[in-house]
Design goal:
The complex is a heterotetramer, with two copies of chain A (about 80 residues) and two copies of chain B (about 150 residues). Chain A has about 80 residues and is an alpha+beta fold. Chain A has one helix at about 30-40; strands spanning about 1-5, 20, 50, 55, 65-70. Chain B has about 150 residues and is of the alpha+beta class. Helix content of chain B is about 30%, strand content about 35%. Chain B is globular and about 50 Å long. Classes of the chains: A alpha+beta (about 80), B alpha+beta (about 150). Chains in contact: A-B, B-C, C-D. Chains B, C: It comes from Pedobacter petrophilus.
Chain lengths: ~80, ~150, ~150, ~80
């Protein structure tokens, strides 16, 4: 399955925007494990995911060409 | 989401006092208003490990931030009897002493404007995907975290 | 009462957006400030028994008002860690749509500025000997009462 | 005893600034009774007194040449 990964803030310093091709990943929990293995800097960080511009609160199915954003804690204002 | 147009709250660079004055002046024809409440965020020259913050560089996930702000706006208008609500947030490099957030609410009596303004500020800080990179005078940086 | 100079909060006529912008701009050198809270009171064109309020004519018992405001100012500075506090109230005839009260507080973090601003507005309305005469479009009048 | 009376707001429309010469009045409670007899419009109104620029909360002795202010409810802001 092909996914587009985008990232923000502190996380954008070690994960740049990229397309990834993954197998055996069906949902965001699995993707999260994959990301934490590929980018160990994520371990111990708080972050949220958004799938196709919707911030997700729980595990969610992924489908071909989904765009997944990795977002560290917000610090606007 | 309603049919109302999604407003862009973001502007490049600092929010100037003149911009704020203009926004205030535009309300003089709205004579049902009795109270205005404003919150402004200003970039602090914090000292962190002996280095001073010279600026904060703000970035956002704009589509998500604007959709979330639209949702917040509608919830606040639903909850409080407001005449007006204006929110502006800076993007890019904002120097210490400059204004990066401007929240402005108005109502017939003071209480709804004040309460809505406070709730907006809390929700903006907690819920909008915006990130501030604190840039020190020596060009090094660290990522801001809201407390 | 302390030795600090008693400030005059009163000004003749409406408070202009330009005056407010100026006041905001003066804080850009105070780089320990992270949050500003502002409340502005605006004269409403209320309809009372079929007549519209055209203006409010404000008068005060100035010596008593300024002494009381001094006392409030000191109590608020004691209670909240504020960087700045500014209060301005109009005297004379202020037309509907014009601003007659401007309260402006600043602090390193947002909460003290917001809480102090709210408390100031409540105390100013309750404790300062100021009276507003609502003047209708036909020149008749009634005395305003704060609710 | 000579007292100076000043008034504000709505009350200034029927009590103008004036010096009064009173006998058998020693304190603000007695003055208040005198004023409500002389100016029946005060009856049923809420008002406060200030003696020599101090707003009083309870009955207070008066002395020669005191300035007494009569103030209706405040309506600033």
């Amino acid at each position: 399955m092909k996914l587009e990964i985008i990232s923000f803030g502190k996380i954008s310093e070690f994960i740049t925007g990229q397309e990834i091709e993954v197998s055996e990943i069906d949902n965001t929990d699995q993707l999260q494990q994959y990301l934490e293995t590929s980018f160990p800097q994520l371990l111990g960080m708080k972050y949220k995911l958004a799938v196709n511009q919707n911030i997700i609160q729980a595990n969610q199915q992924l489908t071909e060409n989904d765009q997944v954003a990795i977002m560290p804690p917000f610090s606007g204002g | 989401m309603s049919e109302k147009k999604i407003k862009n709250i973001f502007m490049d660079g600092a929010i100037s006092p003149a911009f704020i004055a203009d926004s205030i002046a535009q309300h003089s024809t709205k004579t049902a208003i009795g109270g205005h409440s404003i919150f402004m965020g200003q970039v602090r020259r914090d000292e962190i490990n002996g280095k001073f913050v010279a600026a904060i560089d703000y970035t956002t996930y704009q589509e998500v931030a604007l959709a979330k702000m639209h949702e917040i706006r509608e919830a606040i208008f639903e909850k409080y009897p407001l005449s007006c609500m204006h929110v502006h947030h800076s993007l890019g490099k904002i120097k210490a002493g400059e204004i990066c957030l401007f929240v402005f609410t108005s109502s017939a009596h003071r209480k709804p404007a004040i309460d809505a303004c406070n709730e907006l500020v809390e929700r903006i800080k907690a819920e909008l995907p915006i990130w501030g990179k604190e840039i020190f005078e020596d060009e090094s940086h660290q990522w801001k975290e809201n407390i």
